[in-house]
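#onboarding

Welcome to the new folks! Below is a worked example of what a typical request in this channel looks like: someone posts a single protein sequence, and someone else replies with the predicted structure as tokens. Don't worry about understanding the tokens yet, we'll cover that in week two.

Example request:
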Amino acid sequence: MNLQSNFRVKEYMAQRAIFIVLIALVVGIAIADPNFLAFSTLRDILQQSSTRLIIALGAAFILITGGVDLSAGRVVGLTAVISASMLQIDTYANRFFPDLPQLWVGIPIVIGIVAGLLVGFINGIIIAKLHVPPFIATLGTMVGIYGVNSIYFDMEPNQSQPIGGLRKDFTQFGSGYIDLGGGYSIPYIVLIAIAVALICWVIFNKTRLGKNMYAIGGNVQAAHVSGINVARNLIMIYAISGALYGLAGVLEAARTGGATNNYGNMYELDAIAACVVGGVSTAGGIGTVPGVMAGVLIFGVINYGLTFIGVSPYWQLIIKGLIIVSAVAFDIRKYMAKK
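Example response:
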């Protein structure tokens, strides 16, 4: 094999490293327990990973611009509580709003998504107009949102009791499925996540906003010089990310059948880790939707698969930590090589 062919093989392997790691994980766990390859296992992993994918896609928008969003998890918690509080059955003993009539299921869902969008819009204003660094801006909103959510959650007559008794027309979005026959089924939440991923792919690759997003992350000064309205684009991007977090929060409440003010805690770190492992550069300007999907699936396989074969949760954390550090180190190495 000549040098040129060797270089092509290495380049091919590097570009598809994330998918090779995913396949290796699945094969390794399947060798330890062949039952892992059952269709029901794949369905469970996809169902549990669906909301994480939506959050990670929101985080990817921001990472590609060279920013970061630490408020994602708390937005998930806020929107989960808001939507769940308005979608309890009439006969539930501890209704959040005892006198609230049965609303059309779409109204609280839209309210939850809009609440997330507003938080993202506020983040965008703080960062783009007040020039507060994204880390500090979203750290502040993360703390503030948790406070707002806790006050809402503690209102009379709920007084910080877990919200339960959710309506079936709402929970079906998270736990319902399409029966394919023969013991096979596809959860609705998986189809929703796939639809969101397709929309994000179109935005990333086929829209002016997507092109501007990559340009801002690649070189913000060059983006300014080329006539891109950086502030307006950043506000739009943070608002879209907030809406995605809001949708994820609504779906998480539907999937679990309840909500508390602690929902979504630390989800932003898992989302950022999945993005980085999936090839989204921490320096900005680089990232793809398929890569983010693969990164989420890797952590889904780790969480579900290692538990499936009886690996201690503590070892799972060590493995996840090593994967994250390795991915960031590889990303920095590529960035420095380009410089």
